[in-house]
Amino acid sequence: MQIVIDRQALLTVLKRSAAAITPNDMVSVRQCVLIDAADGVASSFAATNGQIDIIVSARAEVKQPGRAALNHHRLSSLINELPDGYVEVTVDPKFRVSIRSSSSKRKFTMTALDPVDFPPLLALEAPPTLYSVEAKILLQAAGEVSFAIDSKAFQLPAGALLSPTEDKFFEVAAVDGHVFAMAKGWFTERGSTEDCLLPKNFLDALRGVPKDHVIALSQGDNKIFATAPDMRVRCNQIQQPFPVGLKRGMLQSVPTQRRFRVSSQALLESVSAVSTASEFVEGKDKYVQIDLTCTEGVVTLTTRKSESSSGEDELTVSESDLSSFKLHFNATLMSLALKSFSPVEIDFYYAIVADRPMAFLKSETLIASVMLIDEIPSPPARSK
Q1: Is 80 exceeded by the pLDDT of residue 104?
Q2: Degrees, nearest 5: CA angle 244-246-250
Q3: Residue 27: phi, psi to the nearest 5?
Q4: Does residue 98 share a domain with residue 9?
Q5: What is the pLDDT of residues 140-156, one digit of tens each?
Q6: Last residue of some domain: 117, 139, 159?
Q7: Which element (helix H / strand E) includes 145?
Q8: Cα distance between residue 82 and residue 86, in whole Å
Q9: What DSSP letter does each residue of 294-311 carry, written as one string?
Q10: Average pLDDT rounded to a whole number, residues 339-362
Q11: What range defines the domain where residue 94 resides?
């Protein structure tokens, strides 16, 4: 096999296929990218880890057709060391690899694996398209709820639920037991009303799709498919059902009476500033606890560094309901929720959901909820 390909194009291919590579996989061939060079000016690059399959196409001059499996990490490292220009990749019958650059005299060698050993990839022909959505829109919505996608908390699905709403709009929701988030977006085309569960590794793979490309989504046979120009992805669906009832309950619990309005950036900076003056509260999971007190349009954030000292910050909020209240929250979770918002004005609410206090942050396109602390742990005692 022998191909000549632009260095930047090859790096893009390797970056887009990396989501299907598990570096510490015990099966060495699953750490490889399979290059399939057929006659013509295009080659395909495939990667799989048993859970997700990715095939990326790229323009390349095929001087000699063939197939070879090259270690993804090793190949990426070598190509990164070369200057811009064209790269010639040659694999001989004994799977010895030669890599040359048209812009320098540098030459690298490595050993390929027999493509026969590469896990079989069935044709990634997707079922009929459910929806088409611009990559920028889907990834922005998924990114906004990403802080709530946690594979460990409460054994909930490590993914997000995409649900069509009215017309061409959709909601993307994620929950991990302590936090909940829901963002909105819109389809380019909509051909179904089915919900679609998007696994975390599937969303990670789609981050390699250029933002202006349109992604076609479909599902079937317990798998989800994404088709974009020059890229196809197939991923095993999450077998555990998404807690739709919990999502519905959270949305129904969003209060209608806003407590105050505040800049998401200002509140985040205040939380961060107060957190730096804090020590961890001892417990199963160590965290920084912050007390929020609102009095006549002024919010005070306080954290107790010790029994005798504390960190404190104040910020003025707008459109306050002028009531006074005090809440206690985990600084890490609140920071993650606030970082999901662009620097915009957000509305702050709180309510009781399933006997647990929850804080709700809301903008025009995103709702985020963080579980509050209903019992205040004592500050950690200083060691003598």
Answers
A1: yes
A2: 120
A3: -90, 105
A4: yes
A5: 999 999 888 864 544 45
A6: 117
A7: none
A8: 10
A9: EETTEEEEEEESSSS-EE
A10: 87
A11: 2-117
